[in-house]
Amino acid sequence: MIASIHGTVIAVSSSRAVIDVQGVGYAVAIAPRIAQSLRVGEQTRLHTALIVREDDMSLYGFADELELGLFDLLRSVSGVGPKSALGVLGAMTPDEAARAITDGDDAPFRRVSGIGPKTAKLIVVSLSGRIAPPSAAAQPSVTTAPANDSDGAARTALAAALTGLGWPERTAVATATAVVESARADVGDGAPLPGLSALLRTALAELGPAGGRS
């Protein structure tokens, strides 16, 4: 795994930089904001994520661990690939993304090329509770729901998330009830339930392919 890269910028465009490291040029996909800060001939250090696929190996570069952490979180959402995740970082800062997720506002994500309304909604729902509010921490963090969240509130929030993703209300309510009851049995009485994002992943796994929607 290539965690970071340090070398001389030998080429840069709005979406890619080539960094020379001891005579080897590494092509790194970057957001326009980073491209604007790079100068040919100057030294730079980028935090990186190496994405390996069957027919491709791509290196993505970031200014700091905060951007890299958000990139990884975004890619954990169903339907969000590395290019779309990088597109989010090109459209907003990590603080702006965290604020939108914390506020439940999917509009900024809908404006990103390649992200449709349902995927934008899924980003907000899936990452709610997993990313700290902008002023609360230096980087995205995973949390669980507060201990005083009631099972009823969890069912309501989960059902609302499922209906927002296009599932019929009756299906959403029944699935939310079953998932929350199962989670309660797993953690025991008095213990906090998993966060909404974890409950949603379980619900989506149980519901199966999107063909079940009406």
From TrEMBL:
GO molecular function, one term: ATP binding
Residue span, Helix-hairpin-helix DNA-binding motif class domain: 72-91, 107-126
Subcellular location(s) of the protein: Cytoplasm
Superkingdom of the source species: Bacteria
Family that this chain belongs to: Belongs to the RuvA family.
This protein's record includes keyword DNA damage: yes
Name of the protein: Holliday junction branch migration complex subunit RuvA
Pfam families per UniProt: HHH_5, RuvA_N
Keywords: ATP-binding, Cytoplasm, DNA damage, DNA recombination, DNA repair, DNA-binding, Helicase, Hydrolase, Nucleotide-binding
GO biological process: DNA recombination; DNA repair
A GO cellular component entry from the record: Holliday junction resolvase complex
InterPro entries: DNA_helicase_Holl-junc_RuvA_I, Hlx-hairpin-Hlx_DNA-bd_motif, NA-bd_OB-fold, RuvA, RuvA_2-like
Quaternary structure and interacting proteins, as annotated: Homotetramer. Forms an RuvA(8)-RuvB(12)-Holliday junction (HJ) complex. HJ DNA is sandwiched between 2 RuvA tetramers; dsDNA enters through RuvA and exits via RuvB. An RuvB hexamer assembles on each DNA strand where it exits the tetramer. Each RuvB hexamer is contacted by two RuvA subunits (via domain III) on 2 adjacent RuvB subunits; this complex drives branch migration. In the full resolvosome a probable DNA-RuvA(4)-RuvB(12)-RuvC(2) complex forms which resolves the HJ.
Gene name of this polypeptide: ruvA
Biological function: The RuvA-RuvB-RuvC complex processes Holliday junction (HJ) DNA during genetic recombination and DNA repair, while the RuvA-RuvB complex plays an important role in the rescue of blocked DNA replication forks via replication fork reversal (RFR). RuvA specifically binds to HJ cruciform DNA, conferring on it an open structure. The RuvB hexamer acts as an ATP-dependent pump, pulling dsDNA into and through the RuvAB complex. HJ branch migration allows RuvC to scan DNA until it finds its consensus sequence, where it cleaves and resolves the cruciform DNA.
Comment text on domains: Has three domains with a flexible linker between the domains II and III and assumes an 'L' shape. Domain III is highly mobile and contacts RuvB.
Annotated stretches, region: Domain III: 156-214
